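Recall the central idea of this unit: under ordinary conditions, the amino acid sequence of a chain determines the structure it adopts. In this exercise we apply that idea directly, starting from the sequence alone.
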Amino acid sequence: MTHARLTTDLRETVIAIAQDAAAAIMQVYASGFDITMKADDSPVTAADLAAHQRIVRGLSRLTPDLPILSEEATAAPWETRRHWGAYWLVDPLDGTREFIKRNGEFSVNIALVYQGAPTFGVVLAPVTGLVWHAMRGEQAYRRQGVHDTVLRTRVPAHAPLRVAASRSHRSARTQALLDRMGDIETVAQGSSLKFCRIAEGDLDVYPRLGPTSEWDTAAGQCVLHAAGGAVLSTATGKPFRYNRRESLLNGDFMALGDTRLAWRDWLPQDEPETA
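Accordingly, the structure predicted from this sequence is:
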């Protein structure tokens, strides 16, 4: 499936699939749930699994020829994945820990990846029903009810920069980075909603020094790039690409609303700086 074949009908159907998944999540949210720990010590609930099932069912009907890579399914082996041109990359419930805390800061993430780049992205917040969506090379939107609002990042970003950072769980490296940023205001925000709030101009920077998975970032990256920002690898200074190696873990990154910010100056001194 090429970019040109992403019709309005198809895009709207994907948004409807995300909304269906959100309804399944909210049923569990309202009724109480058990928590199971996965092999990597990350939590999973019935909501993750119900959302996964609804998304896979919906996307399989919509595009039966496209593979689906979801956090809640065993990934296809690299020997298979390396030949994929286009595929769906899904996190049925991004922010399971936020879901468990019942703070509302979790999302449904669906991205269409084509030749390594997120081409269409949907991030939905089940508690509010807000949807952020974007096509690569087009505008980014926030949908409330049936109304779409065009999103633009805050450019130029100016002090105090509004930075997404955990209040309680900061690594020493992250704290060192924040200390180098100057006049900032830190804001706690869970899941892919961080990318969306930067896209809206509500936040300026989300620094992530530590592992994430490809399904955590692709949909939010698509929205943020379309709104004028970027998700950049701190190692290369380039936007993330997907399904380019066996590992599905991302490296460190910087999500920016204003790409002219001197983010390399913030990296802790032990970090290799890019040219």
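The mean pLDDT is 93.
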